[in-house]
Write a structure and sequence with these properties.
Structural class: mainly alpha
Shape: globular
Strand order of the largest sheet: 1-2
Helix content: over 70%
Length: 260
């Protein structure tokens, strides 16, 4: 049943052609801007590496980061908010499906479409024109990438479920995205920041979405450190997953109380 939801959401996105074209253009503009910025930084430094990272590795880092941002900046929070606000949540929970898995399936369908429509073109351009390299540890990167997806999903789910207690989640979602972009290594790698900032960022779950998989991809994280980094992701996966399930349990009670 859930695979049908994934496929349905995948097909639905074909309808919004203007949004697709706009998203592709926006991704290419972002990639071009970051490419010029990092070329200028390396040229002005006069060095072939910065913190041990070559320019091709840095271009690879930002290219994969843009692809990850395709799913990390999700709109599922607003979908949940609208279902709570307009009563669609009642219809959803009366169906013979688990609502959390329903939201996950919907998110997977949207993510698959965005990857096909925006991610693949970005990767092709980055590989062919910008010198993007292949992952140093493909298997570990794939595992880290999947864990990062689910960590992001649980955060998105928690923000969306906050709709049961708040009339508007716009501010919370905006704050989440800003904090994520700054502390996750999405725009600038965390290893370029001062040590004190890195220590703060490592305490937050956002670096497990970007910094860990991206660092594994370019080989900045290697050897035994890969296992410790994956352990950190597994911790956030379990912790945030449990918190999301607990919050959903309380949210269901609010539906019962308010709906009689």
């Amino acid at each position: 049943m859930y695979h049908k939801i994934v496929f349905t959401k995948f097909k639905e996105n074909f309808v919004y052609r203007a949004d697709v074209i706009g998203g592709i253009i926006n991704s290419f503009i972002e990639l071009a801007a970051l490419w010029f910025i990092w070329n200028a930084i390396y040229a002005s430094s006069g060095a072939t590496t910065i913190k041990g990272i070559t320019l091709p590795a840095m271009i690879t880092y930002i290219s994969i980061s843009i692809v990850i941002r395709i799913y990390s900046h999700s709109y599922s929070e607003y979908m949940i908010h609208d279902e709570v606000k307009h009563g669609g949540i009642v219809v959803a929970i009366t169906k013979p499906i688990n609502y959390v898995f329903f939201v996950l399936s919907r998110e997977l369908g949207i993510t698959f479409f965005r990857f096909m429509a925006r991610g693949i073109p970005i990767l092709l351009v980055a590989f062919i024109l910008l010198g993007m390299t292949l992952p140093v540890s493909p298997l570990f990167f794939f595992i880290s990438f999947i864990l990062g997806f689910f960590i992001n999903f649980f955060i998105v789910l928690l923000v969306g479920l906050w709709s049961f207690w708040a009339g508007n989640i716009w501010g919370l979602r905006l704050s989440k995205n800003v904090i994520s972009d700054i502390s996750s290594g999405a725009i600038f790698p965390l290893f370029l920041f001062p040590q004190w900032f890195q220590q703060i960022a490592y305490l937050l779950p956002f670096q497990a979405i970007y910094n860990i998989p991206l660092s594994i991809y370019i080989g900045y994280i290697s050897g035994f450190e890969i296992y410790t980094s994956l352990f950190i992701q597994v911790f956030w996966f379990i912790f945030l997953g449990l918190i999301a399930l607990i919050v959903w349990k309380f949210a269901q009670k609010r539906i019962f109380v308010q709906g009689g």
